[in-house]
Task: structure prediction
Amino acid sequence: MGKGEDTRSMILDAALAQASEGGFESLTIGTLAARTGLSKSGLFAHFGSREELQIAAIDAAAARFADTVFAPALLAERGLPRLRAIFAHWLRWTDDSGLAYGCPLHAAAIEFDDRPGPVRDHLVGHYERLQRNLERAFALAVDTGELPADADPGQLAFEALGLVFAYYHAARLLRRADAAERARAAFDRLLAAAAPAA
Result:
């Protein structure tokens, strides 16, 4: 990468750390200038507005999520092994990606769910792609025969996403030490309930 791209990448790394720690509302040109040691004018050269910065940070978070969760899961066999890999990587993704304060995309979903505008629209696009990718992973398990032909990938993806959000709540807000264990048990139960009858 060139110097400008290196600087932009460094800024976005700092933006993700800030969004993970304090949410996207805390993400401003001023707070990012203080965090990176760059001038406000230097930041404006890369991002012309706070909204543009927030959208770029959402894109960076989504890319890091894909690299941390879905990319390694693709190495597993399609079907249940891949689904289990996706879920396992998802539970560990903020730790594995170096975001010590939680998932910035989850924080953004809470912050912008009722706030119309370009940032929300952009975030919705990422979550819709996530939902489609998860549904595709369940559909592959139907194709392999590990889930029955009448299984509904959309419903299974909906429930799996609910388990992830329940895990975030238990692990980050309630600080429950057994949150990951309970999330894995719930996911196993979901797969077992959807499995073909013996």
